[in-house]
Amino acid sequence: MSYLKRVPVPVGTLSPRPCLASDAPVLDLSGQWRFRLLPTADGPADFASAGFDDSGWEIKPVPSHFGTPAYTNANYPIPVEPPLVPDENPTGDHRVTFDLPPGWPAGDAALRFEGVDSCGRVWLNGVELGVTFGSRLPNEFAVGHLLRETGNVLAVRVHQWSPGTYLEDQDMWWWPGIFREVRLIARPAGGLDQVRVQAGFDHETGLGTLTVDGAEVVSGPDLSRPVRPWTAETPYLYDVVIRSGPETATIRVGFRTVSIEDGVLKVNGRRILFRGVNRHEFHPVTGRALSEEVMRADLELMRAHNVNAVRTSHYPPHPRFLDFCDELGFWVIDECDLETHGFEPFGWQGNPTDDPAWREALEDRARRMVLRDRHHPSVIMWSLGNEAGVGRNLGAMAAAMRALDSTRPLHYEGDRTCEHTDVNSRMYAPHDEVAQIGQSTTRPFILCEYGHAMGNGPGGLSEYQRLFETFERCQGGFIWEWIDHGIASERGFLYGGDFGEELHDGSFICDGLVFPDRTPSPGLAEYKKVIEPIRITRDGIENRYDFRSLEGFSLRWGYDGGGGGELPCPPLRPGEQAPLEVPPGSGWCTVSALDPAGHEIAWGQWQDSPSRHELPAIPDGPLERGPEVRLDVWRAPIDNDQFGGRPPKLAQLWRDAGLHRMKQRTISLDPLRVRLAPAAANFGLLATYRWEPQADGSVRLEVEVEPDGQWHVPLPRVGLRFALPASLGIAQWFGGGPGEAYPDSRQAAKMGLHRMSVDQMQTPYVFPQENGARIDVRWASLTDSGGNGLRIEGDTPFLFTARRWTTEQLDAARHTSELVPSDRIWVNVDAAQHGLGSGSCGPVALPAYVLHPKRLRIALRFVRLGNGV
Ligand code: IPT
After folding, report:
1. Rounded distance, CA 517 to CA 286, Å?
2. Are 142 and 172 part of one and the same domain?
3. Is pLDDT of 646 > 90?
4. What is the mean pLDDT of residues 274-278?
5. Ligand 1 pocket check: which of 170, 337, 341 to mutate, most ligand atoms within 8 Å of Cβ?
6. Which residues does ligand 1 sit against, CB inside 6 Å?
7. Beta galactosidase small chain/ domain: from which residue to which, for each copy (predicted)?
8. What is the CA(78)–ligand 1 centre distance, in A?
9. H/E element holding 248?
């Protein structure tokens, strides 16, 4: 097995080519295969022979993974001695028998693997063909001479660890397998093999250009007349039929030209702004084996949230994904299958990126990606890879890419001086650094990763957006990342360590804008609002698309005091503004912009007069007394409080300070005055409670809070906590909603009257943590189905949280299944909470959102509803 001992370059494969949908016959070999798992790489290879009896093997669907998933972020889970790998090497032997369909042509055929992790040794009918390398790149073998009409036996031995492992250290599950399709494709002599299709657009003349090398154009648009250009906002595609010899294919061509002018990245002559996400391929059951439906659904969901760009972190995606990006309209940064992050702990000593012996392997990956994907209009930039350090082989990769395609700029975040690349890129740069880069950069600047969407967060997105709108060369960014990679189980979604890994990085694998089952998290709602391409304010409406006019859009307006309707949307061109003529009304006015399909793209809100929903309630009877309230400062730390980055983390400072174990001492009884402080600390909080029964039967409570002694940490929250009977499971409030919101992630909260069950108020972060707060709440009620319960009104807006477990239970839980409803509903009414930030990987909460202990007053009125509590 010498192929496990030298640099990972495929053995015996055909030269790479684009795989266009042609009229050449194709046989999809996906389906039920036979499978056995071996503990080492060197099991007997007798299974490759046609006569081998595999009837005792398990049946396994292909594409799929095998073995046990294991998660590390940057560390290699094997000893680092490139290119060697340990003896213990889970190896999956796969076998499938197939017949040729009737009429299959004689002659050449390619056996094509779209993705094998991490390498596969291949036999057909007992003849060894070679070895695949490059998990997320195609490998093809010539097999025409070996095919039989019936009873062909394909055998593939897949190793979890291979020399390729050293180049594929992406932050994701280690999970081997033939995880993309395997197909047999007839290759007629003289067919469409070395084809290059290039389509450009001249924005001054409106004319398109089309260059097709290696094939003739049979039909296509009339290029003597203007064409409709392709952009992510106007993804217009033309069918072009090309032919070479006996093979014909229809390709979907988009006319567009990417350029960098005066340090600004442009498409068709205009600056573009990335509203992007980093996308890994992931499904909670099938891992990186994705169906087309899932790929498409991801893009539809992104589009519904105003996302216009994808970085294919950190490897070329399934090829169909790019077809969908062309069709639906996305800017794509196509990233090569390269990451060597695990060399960082050694100061990058031994990094393949800088080792001449690995040059061929890196160049090979670069070439194979470009040759596979360069006909896609959605791909507007190539990325050399991710977190692979620096070194000579980057230059070789860049040169290989430019030789095959000179029409797209190159990206690599690690290339800080742009020695080999064209755009300035950073990950997780804090706001002030982005502002500083914005003032000084001479190149387009992007945040290839920002807004680490782990758990509750990220905070601070709107502040980034303002920077992208201020500096022309700051052209947006890509949230890290699209989806949580939690694996489905009865215990909730599983993450690193749940499979007994000896080295792992825990829940750091769950850092997406959507949960593993693709339910949007509050972070995605926030992002949608922050990046909305139409801005609506009391002053007017502005089109912030780069290409698209607002023709066909409509406006919907309404007052919470009643009244509403539709308004014509001015057909603004990009960058144009117009005043809005909203009829007068009372209360909060909301104006939404709907796209031609009727989906809400953007909205604005303002208050014209006090809302009728803000009036105090009339009690249904006297309240004997208010609930037993307790001053509360603790929150179950969110991921951004406790993971990633450099210690000490905020959550640790909080725990060291003892904020999760405050003790109370009564100072006086009338009014009740207490001091709350943790053991061993010389600081605390003084609180004075004044209860006042009101003539109408309601009860008022005023709490004065005042810091005492020397505080050296901010507070997680300041507010009151109390318990209500479990039967009061229906929440209603007037304030921000419907979803959760926190001080630095609150753009998506719409003022209004909201109602949902306490259970629906919970956000099921894969790793349990503080969640579910509703912001800017004027009043909240909790009732049973008969309307009996309690209403809480604030003199000033508060944060409202209700859950069926305590903060302590939330804090102790490691998986969502550990959160078991108690016989109480626990309510928090907070004057303030500490911001969310993006501290699990990136900047902590901005200074404006740090909750410093300070004097404050919480004034509430408790009102009986129905029969009360
Ligand atoms: C950055 C990686 O590029 C990305 O793959 C992911 O691991 C992310 O971090 C954390 O979730 S690298 C980091 C050192 C900034």
Report:
1. 12
2. yes
3. no
4. 99
5. 341
6. 73, 171, 314, 386-387, 427-428, 449, 480, 511, 841
7. 617-863
8. 20
9. strand 247-253
Q: Please report, for the domain that includes residue 233, its CATH number.
A: 2.60.40.10
720 beta partners: 631, 829
pLDDT band with cut points at 50, 70 and 90 for residue 499? very high
Asked whether residue 168 falls in the same domain as residue 231, the answer is no
The residue nearest atom 9 of ligand 1, judged by CA position, is 841
Rounded-to-integer distance, Cα 285 and Cα 291, Å: 12
Average pLDDT over residues 130-149: 98
pLDDT in tens, 468-488: 999 999 999 999 999 999 999
Name the catalytic one among 140, 181, 387, 740.
387
How far does the centroid of ligand 1 lie from the alpha carbon of residue 171, in Å? 7
Residues 457 and 511 in one domain: yes
CA dihedral sign, ordered 120, 121, 125, 126: negative
Rounded mean pLDDT, 336-346: 98
Co-location of 201 and 130 in the same domain:
no
Report the nearest-CA residue for atom 5 of ligand 1.
171
| pTM score, whole prediction | 0.98
Distance CA 800, CA 749 (A): 13
Based on the domain organization, do 360 and 465 belong to the same domain? yes
One domain, residues 298 and 398:
yes
Query: For the chain, how many structural domains are there in total?
Result: 5
Please give the average per-residue pLDDT across 577-581, as a whole number: 96
Which of 170, 313, 841 has most ligand 1 atoms within 8 Å of its beta carbon, as the pocket-test mutant? Answer: 841
Residue 624 has pLDDT above 90, yes or no: no
186 CA distance to ligand 1 middle (Å):
41
Q: Do 549 and 526 lie in a common domain? A: no
pLDDT band at 101 (very low <50, low <70, confident <90, very high): very high
Which of 168, 449, 526, 740 is the catalytic position? 449
Q: Cα(869) to centroid of ligand 1, in Å?
A: 49
Task: Give yes or no: residues 154 and 203 share one domain.
Answer: no
Q: What is the pLDDT of residue 626?
A: 86
Contact status, residue 423 vs residue 445, Cβ threshold 8 Å: yes
CATH number of the domain at 395, please: 3.20.20.80
Q: Is 624 one of the catalytic residues?
A: no
Atom number, ligand 1, closest to the C-alpha of residue 413: 3
Q: Does 647 have pLDDT greater than 90?
A: no
Other beta carbons within 10 Å of 252 = 18
Look at residue 697 and tell me if it is in a domain. Answer: no
Query: How close is the Cα of 73 to the center of ligand 1, in Å?
Result: 8
Give the max Cα distance, the chain. Answer: 98
pLDDT of residue 811: 98
Residue located nearest, by CA, to atom 12 of ligand 1:
387
User: Does a cis peptide bond (omega within 30 degrees of 0) precede residue 648?
Assistant: yes
> Mean pLDDT across the chain, nearest whole number?
97
Out of 186, 212, 230, pick the residue that ends a domain. Answer: 186
In this predicted model, what pLDDT tens digit does every residue of 795-812 receive, in sequence order?
A: 999 999 999 999 999 999
Q: Does residue 34 have a pLDDT over 90?
A: yes
Q: Is there a domain that residue 249 lies in?
A: yes
Contacts of 780 (CB under 8 A, 6+ apart): 731, 732, 733, 735, 774, 791, 792, 800, 802, 829
| pLDDT at residue 96 is higher than 90 | yes
What distance in Å separates the CA atoms of residue 454 and residue 482, rounded to the nearest whole number?
10
What does the alpha-carbon distance between residue 131 and residue 118 come to, in Å, rounded to a whole number?
Answer: 11
Residues spanned by the domain of 277:
273-530
